[in-house]
């Protein structure tokens, strides 16, 4: 037994090898080929993107104009969400001084693989035709695939700089799979409303990443402390990501809500909550420093907390001042999280959260889910109207007799399901990632692009040459012959 334990210890603690020349190409190529096969077997155009089916659909429903195609209603929101996924999330993580390639490049890799796998996984649960065995996809499927990928990108934030690209592919594979299952349970079986994904995206993604990070705890991560920080220009790049996310978050929350008042109301509520988050974040950040200076970490992250928390309740009649209160509260909670909770988690719970996803996604997502439960339970026919209640909460079919109190209870239960899936699923995936076969960096080599990227050398400081009336010098005269030159050694 002693020899067995020693062998296991040597296996898990052997020296890190970051050479991914075989593993990364193998994973990318094999999994891409698998996607081609799965798409060939299952994926087809839906009735609004297939030319033959669209013509038949128009005739059947007496539609005379192609402008009635759902593409023209959903595509602007899809564009906004797509920018958030590839630009917003990517650049938000460029704050590390030597990990910008990894932040944007691996974000690109995760999203590109994840949207393909999401179309298949979500299709099996939501769009599989039992008669033909095929999955029909359209523009709304693309939006939902982006939503699915967002949860894996959130998880990446907790692992930033500490894992290999091969590990990130594994995180995405299981993350998308778990997301599809918990989304089906929450939205279909429990019949919760969560258009902006406070529960299914942010709470799940945040706790999924935190659980993985906890299992992958590195007691000697301080050896890379010199790189676990920002410089002036890296914080500016990260702020680009913040502004993209902040501007497009109303589209994110409202992309798949009902046409008409539902989508309109969602944009208004999210817009107002985000604005409120900014002021409270600035206030708390300034109060926390003796001379009132602002911390860029707070401005980059906590200013977005209102958008996260409004993901569930934004399509409800929460009222504009209610949205302000949500943004106000979440701005405070998120900023305090960066000030006190993140250091506490690392010191006492051994949880190393590089981007602070606990404060931006996990807690605001959880709060957003419970806020949605409260607002749903408080809904009245006087405010919504009878038809409005049916439309907002989709009280039709087998759910036609559900009361708003019952709906509120299920909304709260859905939040708990998302958290449980994130924690348990993340812990299991973390155990898989502990295997020493993934090419992850050593403790003294984290947060550094040079491990996995060809990084151009820093610009050499070329000694300046000061010349008097340089334009008067003969063109063929060597610069060293100038009688009025000063060289810096």
Give a topology summary.
Elements: H1 2-13, H2 23-42, E1 43-45, H3 51-60, H4 71-92, H5 100-126, E2 135-137, H6 139-159, H7 165-189, H8 198-215, H9 232-254, H10 261-287, H11 296-301, H12 305-309, H13 320-348, H14 357-377, H15 381-384, H16 386-393, H17 404-433, E3 465-467, E4 485-487
Parallel strand pairs: 1-2
Antiparallel strand pairs: 3-4
Widest beta sheet: strand line-up: 1-2
Q: Biggest sheet: strands, sense, closure?
A: 2 strands, parallel
| SSE string, helices as H and strands as E | HHEHHHEHHHHHHHHHHHHEE
N-to-C CA distance: 65 Å
| Rg, Cα atoms, Å | 26 Å
Number of strands: 4
What's the average pLDDT? 92
Unreliable spans: 5-12, 465-489
Helix content class: 55-70%
Shape: globular
Description:
The chain is mainly α. Helices cover 63% and strands 2% of the residues. The strands form two sheets. Strands 1-2 form a two-stranded parallel ribbon. A two-stranded antiparallel sheet has the order 3-4.
Using brief descriptors, characterize the structure shown.
two-stranded parallel sheet, 17 helices, mainly alpha, 489 residues, two-stranded antiparallel sheet, disordered C terminus
In short:
By secondary structure, this protein is mainly alpha-helical. The chain contains 17 helices and four strands. The strands form two sheets. The chain has a two-stranded parallel ribbon. Strands 3-4 form a two-stranded antiparallel ribbon.
